[in-house]
Amino acid sequence: MKSPIYYKTKKITLNVLIHLFLISVAVSCLFPLVWMIFASFKTQDTIFKDAALIPKVFHFENYYLAWVKGGFGRYFLNSIFYTVSVVIGIVIISSLAAYAFSRLQFPGKNLLFVMFLVAMMIPIPGSFVALYILLNKLHLRNTPAGYILCMINVGLSTSIFLLKTFFDKMPKELEDAARIDGCTKFGIWWHVALPLSKPVLAVVVIFNALNVWNEYILALIIFDSKGFMPLQVALQTFQGEFVTNYPLLMAGLTITVLPIVLVYLFMQKYIIKGVMQGAVVG
Question: Number of structural domains, the chain?
Answer without folding.
Answer: 2
